[in-house]
């Protein structure tokens, strides 16, 4: 499908996803994806077939990227109507309608709508910040993307427990400052952490992201993976980041 067949609002643009000729509709007024979404899409363990769910999908970047790794059916849920509509148009743009379905809704009651234990794998890039007052200075779209306006971290993890099948995987990207809370809540809701990887902007800097994958009803046995370094000493992307963005490497060896 040609890009001029998809309607764009005045504030919107088409961005290249740098892989498999994929494109995505973005708008700085509403939401633009960042590196955390790309890293989660490459980190998460994926079944070759089955059913996958992306929670807090935003403009749909993660499900679109996941189609390069799996033939599974992918559902995605987003609470903001404008973002959900953008995601649908991006799916159409890339001719992925048969693989991806975008839902507008609240993840806290999504299992009641779609069914319990339905998914083999779930990805989630949730709002990172609890409510603290700073959210009122942002636009509603920015505040919803960054702050827990529509559900706490516990709400989201609880929803994942309801939606993933026994033995299914839940993969999340978040801030390292909340790793203790994440592990505690995952175990509370029968999601056993299995793989954890810290992401550092530079080799001598503290981690600013954490990737974590849990198994529904799994046994305690967690692997701490080597750190992922974003920039080298020259301020350029390290080789692994370059491979994630531009190459075919998708961390398959980590998913074994």
Question: What do you see in this structure?
Answer:
Residues 37-133 form the Methyltransferase small domain. InterPro entries: SAM-dependent_MTases_sf (IPR029063), Small_mtfrase_dom (IPR007848), tRNA_Adenine-N(6)_MTase (IPR050210). With 256 residues, the protein is an alpha/beta fold. Helix content is 27%, strand content 25%. It contains eight helices and eleven strands. The protein has helices at residues 35-43, 61-66, 81-93, 110-114, 140-146, 153-163, 179-188, 239-246; strands at residues 12-16, 23-27, 51-55, 73-78, 100-104, 119-124, 164-174, 191-200, 209-216, 223-224, 228-229. The strands form two sheets. Strands 3, 4, 5, 6, 7, 8, 9, 10 and 11 form a nine-stranded mixed β-sheet that branches. β8 and β9 (209-216) form a beta hairpin. Mean pLDDT is 89; it is low at 249-256.
Shape: globular
**C-alpha Rg, in Å?**
17 Å
Beginning-to-end CA distance, first to last residue: 35 Å
The number of distinct β-strands equals: 11
Q: State the secondary-structure class.
A: alpha/beta
| Unreliable spans | 249-256
Give the helix level as a range of percent.
25-40%
**Secondary structure tally, helices:** 8
What is the succession of H and E elements? EEHEHEHEHEHHEHEEEEH
What's the mean pLDDT score?
89
In percent, how much strand structure appears in the residues?
Answer: 25-35%
The biggest sheet, with number of strands, parallel, antiparallel or mixed sense and barrel status, is: 9 strands, mixed
Protein name: tRNA1(Val) (Adenine(37)-N6)-methyltransferase
Domain Methyltransferase small: 37-133
InterPro entries: SAM-dependent_MTases_sf (IPR029063), Small_mtfrase_dom (IPR007848), tRNA_Adenine-N(6)_MTase (IPR050210)
């Amino acid at each position: 499908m040609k890009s001029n067949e998809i309607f764009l609002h005045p504030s919107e643009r088409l961005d290249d996803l740098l892989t498999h000729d994929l494109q995505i509709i973005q708008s700085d007024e509403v939401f633009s994806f960042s590196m955390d979404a790309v890293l989660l899409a490459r980190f998460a363990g994926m079944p070759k077939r089955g059913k996958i769910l992306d929670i807090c999908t935003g403009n749909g970047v993660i499900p679109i990227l996941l189609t390069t790794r799996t033939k599974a059916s992918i559902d995605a849920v987003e609470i903001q109507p404008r973002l959900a509509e953008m995601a649908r148009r991006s799916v159409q743009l890339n001719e992925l309608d048969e693989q991806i379905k975008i839902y507008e809704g609240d993840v806290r009651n999504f299992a009641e709508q779609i069914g319990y234990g339905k998914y083999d794998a779930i990805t989630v890039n949730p709002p990172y910040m609890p409510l603290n007052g700073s959210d009122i200075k942002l636009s509603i779209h920015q505040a919803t993307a960054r702050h827990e306006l529509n559900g706490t971290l516990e709400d989201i993890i609880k929803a994942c427990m309801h939606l993933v099948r026994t033995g299914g995987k839940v993969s999340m990207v978040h801030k390292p400052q909340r790793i203790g809370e994440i592990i505690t809540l995952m175990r509370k809701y029968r999601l056993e952490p299995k793989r954890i990887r810290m992401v550092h902007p530079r080799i001598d800097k503290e981690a600013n992201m954490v990737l974590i994958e849990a198994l529904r009803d799994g046994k305690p046995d967690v692997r701490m993976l080597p750190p992922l370094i974003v920039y080298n000493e020259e301020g350029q992307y390290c080789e692994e980041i370059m491979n994630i963005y531009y190459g075919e490497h998708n961390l398959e060896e980590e998913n074994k």
